[in-house]
Amino acid sequence: MGTLSYDADPRLLVVTASFSTYYLYKRFEPSRPAVHAALLLGIPTLLCFYLNAQLSVLQAVGVLLSHWSLILAFTAIYRLSPIHPLAKYPGPALAKLTKFYVAYRNARGDLYVHVRKLHQQYGDVVRVGGSHGPNELSFNRVDALQPIYASKTMKKGPYYDTRKQDDVNTQLDGVREFTAHAARRRPWTKALSPVNIKQYDEVVVQKSRELIEELAKRQGETIDLSHWMNLYGFDFMGHLAFGREFGMLKAGKDTSGLIHVVEEGVYASGFISQFPWILPIFALVPAANKGLLTMQRMSAGFASDRTKAGAHIKDLYYYLTEDESAAQSGVRPDELIADGMLAVIAGSDTTAIVLSHFLYYMMRHPECAEHLRREIDKAFPNGEEPLDFARLAELPYLNACINEALRLLPPALSGLQRRVELGSGGAMVGPYFVPEGTQVSVPMYTLHRNLQEFSPLPDTFWPDRWLTEDTYVLPTGEVISKDQVVTNKAAFVPFSLGPQNCVGKALAQVELRAIAAALVQRFDVRKAKEYDLESWEKDLGDAYITLRGPLPAVLTPRQPA
Ligand code: HEM
């Protein structure tokens, strides 16, 4: 055993050093591995030397553990104390204490359900975890949407740090500065404007026909409809973004393993986004971050091949590289490559998710499928293919069914994180003052089922709520008047809102209508015998966008009227 030669109380020295370390973490929020090493290992090592010593190994370990425990204790005391800036907001103690609380739910995939329960328990504002310290407020209020997503006092929060692909290159959806973001978004907006998306009509038609043809070949067999919606979504996006044929529909499978890579990458990215500070550490250990890196590498490959080959059609990359808007966007070649991943995920997975949900609801509510089929048969008589996009946009029940699927299960189930800017002095969200530095969000799944905005039966698939009628018949058969129905379109935000909303919304709607109408017109869709439809929602995973299990079904071709 060594003896300490330091004459002041050594415990006081350890406490002071630990408090200083805690303060440095709180004040500067360091993320570099070298700084963590200095603060967590370097300081206790210096302490050991300062305490002079021939300290035994056990005593040295004691100093180290005391240092760490004290930092954690100071952090916990502050977070639970009445002096914390969010102290007046309710929430579970664990959520106030640590962001691992949210990360745990994220890893389980049920964060969206859990956040809804918290709102039911605590009210319209709840302190939930957060990806930068447990400093996030969730608002289940329609008047929170504008200040959070459409005002310029809030930028994207640390959750979006995973959109940075290296030290300099960030995907479009990770660009926080509004001016830089607007410039980067310009060519995307042009490529996906209502006028220009007409150029992709041909691709929608071709892929819709391929889908119907391939499904017809498998009539009577049990097939996974969720998988087939993926094959459609990815094939379509290959054309739209990169002018490239993935050939998944024709092959009936994920030919290059891309879908699998995206699913793993989305899961990894959803989880890591809760701990953005871990990214620099992961950069040192690439194996730990394999899912995300493989997804980045693969989509960068598509984008890189496409930019080298040049445009042979006016696809997305034409607008990003060759159109006049490309030059004005100030985008660098490496950033263009980084945007390849955004194009793949944002454009294919989301559409496939919504189409899968739509089919699930059609199987759960055959009476709605029947109603929809009557509408389509009437609009497209004698078996005419439902590929007139202008006519499809006018079909009230079709749009009502799609809206209802998007309402109940939006692809981004949880809240999209924004942060009240540091130095802004704070911001008002509805009637609540939110201190600067706070992360805020409106959870879509929860708001879309808020009884004040969608009633009656906010949890029920009831497309009629989107129709304009004098009286309504509920699924129970009860007749109610229009005054008893609330459908607040301002609270319906599956594509988000404001300057960073979905730039592909118009195209997504064209695709959703075309594919949904074609499937309902051409097939009777029944769940597979051995499949329990209850499993569909149970199998969903919330990883920023939705992960799905299989949707086994049997299709019978029908002769359209
Ligand atoms: C039903 C289908 C879709 C839904 C529900 C959807 C939803 C969303 C949402 C909620 C956002 C905001 C994300 C955030 O703030 O973190 C977003 C962004 C985006 N979406 Fe979509 N999306 C869909 C389809 C598409 C399609 C087909 C494309 C492209 C062809 C697309 C391209 C994008 C892009 C590029 C962004 C980032 C925009 C920016 O940061 O300025 N989306 N989408």
UniProtKB/TrEMBL annotation:
Q: Where are the transmembrane segments?
A: 34-52, 58-78
Q: Where does heme bind?
A: 502
Which cofactors does it use?
Answer: heme
For this UniProt record, the keywords arranged alphabetically read as follows: Heme, Iron, Membrane, Metal-binding, Monooxygenase, Oxidoreductase, Transmembrane, Transmembrane helix
Q: Does the keyword Isomerase apply?
A: no
Q: Which Pfam families match?
A: p450
Q: What is this protein called?
A: Uncharacterized protein
- State the organism named in the record: Phlebiopsis gigantea (strain 11061_1 CR5-6)
PANTHER family per the record?
Answer: CYTOCHROME P450, P450, PUTATIVE (EUROFUNG)-RELATED
A GO term, aspect molecular function: heme binding
